[in-house]
Amino acid sequence: MSQLCVNNLACIKRDRLLFDAVCFSLQAGDILHLQGPNGAGKTSLLRILVGLSEPQSGSVQWHGAPISQDRAAYHRQLIYFGHKPGVNLALSARENLRYWCDLQGVAQPLDIYSLLDSLGLVGLEDLPASQLSAGQQRRIGLARLWLKSARLWVLDEPFTALDRHAVTLLKQRMQMHLGEGGMIVLTSHQSLEWAGQLKTLHLEYRI
Amino acid sequence: MTAKLTGLLRRDLALAYRQKAELMQPLIFFLIVISLFPLGVGPGPQTLQKIGPGVIWVAVLLSSLLGMERLFRDDFNDGWLEQMMLSGLPLSLVVLIKVAAHWLTCILPLLLVSPLLALFLNLTPPMYQALLLSLLLGTPLLSLVGATGVALTLGLQRGGVLLSLLLLPLLVPLLIFATSAVDAAALQLSYNGQLAIIGALFLLALALTPLATAHALRVSQN
């Protein structure tokens, strides 16, 4: 049985049908690349997938049960990296991650500095995030992928504003996650060079 | 779950400490309004004593509206709200924590300077006692109802004006009962009745507004 199953999802925004009859399912180790032009509803689909918004019709099922049945259990197994990274600009990288760990109920690793170092934030750990570049701010958000072990990652444009080194690092981390039996759903406008098997779903822009 | 909630509270307090300038804004506004009144209406002790409680309460209402948007606006803009909604915590508890942090950082400072201002406006000790009790019971109500208003106007680009229009009518009963308690104290009458009504309003808001706020926040995500 597949772990994440999406049935007949439809979404209407401002009287415009973004998509309907979207179906897919993911098994352990699967990665789904969501493609489509701007405004096709990729982000809307991801938000429905994680339970932030409700679909017009259809359902998202986690281990055979609708996600609304036990949201807390579903969210424990989920990391969502959204269009907005959830990084507060007045707090430093370390504080942002610390409070996120508190919120998720995961223990903070002792070597948070070495994690931030490996993400190229050497010496910037304690600066307010407002002083960092856009790419560096997104790296703070992406550091969560190393902090919490979750089965399902939902990533909205994770490669935006990242340099080549960070993209490689993130891809390695994603490979590792899939190897451990995890699942990934992501959107990206770049074509994804992927070593393993890659599922794709194309959303059309409808008028 | 308690650890998660205390973590949230710690974050909000740390954030308030980091943004001291924004935090000072309502406090300074409060101080300015109240110190301008004796200049405007004349320094007659009797007049000041008569209008004092009303002035302090109106100033508290207006200056707390000034910082009200801080409750959810930043979290909404930077995506932290989404992370909180996906944390597995009941959203109404998250709302309660946010409200508590808002009260501690934005409203408690107003209460702390209020003895000084009571002195400015020539309030007698029994009047000040009544004022302080009405503020202690009434201001949490302000934060709770304010949170619902902010959550309802989150999706709007400039929700500030609408927020005041939404909230002020709801807060008028609070103002009436609070100032009437202080007036009663000035006449050395018992003001338990007024305090009891404010207390009842507070408890009602404590029970219902977190649910309404949580729902409004969910709608803002759609």
Automatic annotation (TrEMBL), chain A:
Domain ABC transporter: 4-207
GO molecular function, one term: ATP hydrolysis activity
Keyword ATP-binding belongs to the record: yes
NCBIfam families: ccmA (TIGR01189), PRK13538.1 (NF010061)
Name this polypeptide is given: Cytochrome c biogenesis heme-transporting ATPase CcmA
GO biological process: cytochrome complex assembly
Keywords: ATP-binding, Cytochrome c-type biogenesis, Membrane, Nucleotide-binding, Translocase, Transport
UniProt keyword annotation of Ubl conjugation present: no
Pfam families named among the record's database cross-references: ABC_tran (PF00005)
Name of the gene encoding the protein in the UniProt record: ccmA
From TrEMBL, chain B:
Domain of life assignment: Bacteria
Annotated InterPro entries: Cyt_c_biogenesis_CcmB (IPR003544), Cyt_c_CcmB_bac (IPR026031)
Keywords, sorted A to Z: Cell inner membrane, Cell membrane, Cytochrome c-type biogenesis, Membrane, Transmembrane, Transmembrane helix, Transport
Chief localization: membrane
Family annotation (Pfam families): CcmB
Gene Ontology biological-process entries: cytochrome c biosynthetic process; cytochrome complex assembly
Subcellular location: Cell inner membrane
Transmembrane segment boundaries: 21-42, 54-72, 93-121, 127-154, 161-182, 194-217
GO MF annotation terms: heme transmembrane transporter activity
One GO CC annotation: plasma membrane
Membrane topology per record: Multi-pass membrane protein
Function: Required for the export of heme to the periplasm for the biogenesis of c-type cytochromes.
Family recorded in the similarity comment: Belongs to the CcmB/CycW/HelB family.
Protein name per Swiss-Prot or TrEMBL: Heme exporter protein B
Originating species: Bowmanella dokdonensis
Taxonomic lineage from the root: Bacteria, Pseudomonadati, Pseudomonadota, Gammaproteobacteria, Alteromonadales
